[in-house]
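FORM 7B: Structural annotation worksheet

SECTION A. Query
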Amino acid sequence: MGTAITIGSFIFFTALVAVLTWWLTRGTTLDTDEGYFLAGRSLTGVFIAGSLLLTNLSTEQLVGLNAASFNDGLSVMCWEVIAGVSLVILALVFLPRYLKSGIATIPQFLEERYGALVRAMTAMIFIVAYMLILLPFVLFLGANGLNGMLQLDARFGLSEIQTIWILIGSIAGLGGAYAIFGGLRAIAVSDTFNGAGLLIGGLMITFFSLSIIAGDEGGFSGAFAKIQEADPDAFVSLGTANEDTHWPTLFTGVLLLNFFYWCTNQQIIQRTFGAKNLAEGQKGVLLAAFFKILAPLILVLPGIAAAYLVIDAADSQMVEAVEQDSDGNWVSSRAYGALVARVLPEWLLGFFAAVVVGSILSTFNSVLNSAATLFSLDVYKKYISSDATTKQVVWSGQMCSLVIGVLAIIAAPLIFYGRDGVFGFFQTLNGVYFIPLLAIIMIGMFNRNVDGRSAVITLLAGLGLMVAGTFFGGDDDGWLKSIFGSGFHYMGAVFVTLLVLQLALGSIGLKRAEPYEQRDAGLVDLTPWKIAPVVGGILTAFALSIFVYFAS
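SECTION B. Predicted structure
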């Protein structure tokens, strides 16, 4: 009976979101570039905020970040709280420039600034990285988390790896349908519904977890006191020296990865390119910033609670579900799924599993849509068929989504299965292309003179340095750790090196014939939201105050 209730509630909520999305987007035009890739530049603040959050808040956060907090405690909140500050910068500094150019992709901006070669290179880097890093990570953690929540392998008599393969294929098929046939508007609308469900469900997990820990002893304050007594470092925001997110890294790799992800990453900011006008775009981005600063309530606290239940309370259900590996370490990637199965009643389990699937689909279909946009506009229309009709351009994007989705399905278990600490590994892989791209985008945005040749040299040098450090830096006793102390510090050093390199190349003659002048494409109203700077300042102060309050 319990299985039927769980599966029934799962199917009901998933179908409800699909029907509501179809109803609200049934008149949308999808046979033009802007209609398919940018929702016809019609998105308002609420839909932009919802899509930003759900594109980001997937299993990489729910499972991955809670697994990180299982090991390291509150210090991993930096990935969320600093993201709020990065979104403020996007709203106030970058978004006005992007909307002024009327671009659909970041490589389009780079062509405007540097030339066609840089556009082609960056488009291919994004597409390959999405296919081999981001999509496999999202699919694997999604399947792994769902299996832990619903215990599908035990319910259906399958092995863990068989269940993960089946779930990966199912998730990719459903997400691909949204991305391939619905375009950006369908993605944004479905994201908003799933976002509401994720917020409610995530808070419920935190509430029930703390209630179980507290028992009859003082409510939430009693739960926090028990955790603090068992692990005095659990609620220290600045981390300890043996953690990846120790406070010095907040000013190097953590800051740079966050900044690139939220201000210049095609997958994320494409939804802001679809804004109805600048004011609506800024409202949506700043609303998303507010929720990102509060996100540790559902993305960090449950992991800390799970660690207490497993390690200190020795809760039998949690211990059995999380398990230890051959070295005696807890398999933290199983912690969130085990916690959900432990604290939620059966009738709510299907609802939350549907919400989690929605969050996976959000990231998956958003990335597919972004990859399709990059391929169609930056590769197909530019180099393969310059005279293609809009219908052919959209079709090329749909085929690109299909191919990338299939390859990501194959790669997901091969890259991530059997690996613990996957969230940190994922961020390390991201740095390989985040850091070089961020360097040339920053110089291109704020320097008017350096040319495309300097950008190409800097980009290739950055990729080489990041590949060397990431894959040939050695383990804890390797050259990277002995010189820089942390891979995140190495990212910071490479970033500064690349900025200096490109500026130096410009000083020795690799300059534009004429200084770069940005032109207004006139596609949207660029009147800003009047109180955006005030709201941004308040949000930044709020984020910093959280770090200060939990500093010790």
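SECTION C. Observations
DSSP finds 25 helices and no strands in the chain. The radius of gyration is 23 Å.

SECTION D. Sign-off
Analyst initials: ____
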